[in-house]
Amino acid sequence: GLNFAYYEGDWDALPDFSKLTPKKTGKCGGFDIGKREREDGFAFKFTGFLKIAEKGTYALNTASDDGSRLWIGDALVVDNDGSHAMIERRGVVRLKAGKHPIRVEWIEGNGAEGLKVSIAGPGVDKKEIPATMLFQRR
Fold this sequence. Notes:
With 138 residues, the protein is an all-beta fold. It has strands at residues 2-8, 24-28, 42-52, 56-64, 68-72, 75-80, 87-95, 98-108, 115-121, 124-128, 134-135.
């Protein structure tokens, strides 16, 4: 699972989350936007660890309605920012076997809500990242 921070506000692009106070925080099984308290004008920051079984090159994707970004450690891997309809963006990163810090930020302006985070790489056909690959920060 992952840790999450939930925010409310109106943004056209991803805000600087370090300057915001979350409305609530908690733990979830994955990239679960169902923890929201309203339909529009909110954001999530998910943090934890991604466990990679085999070293190699991995493609990570975010498909989002409105802005999203994905980091592995301090490296921005996927930038899908801005106010837009559902769009998928991909980034490629080389990873060693083991656990890697992961952070995904996402905003919802108005309209449909959607966020999917997927992975493909050695021994992994493209699929949404399962909870078995995600671990919470303690």
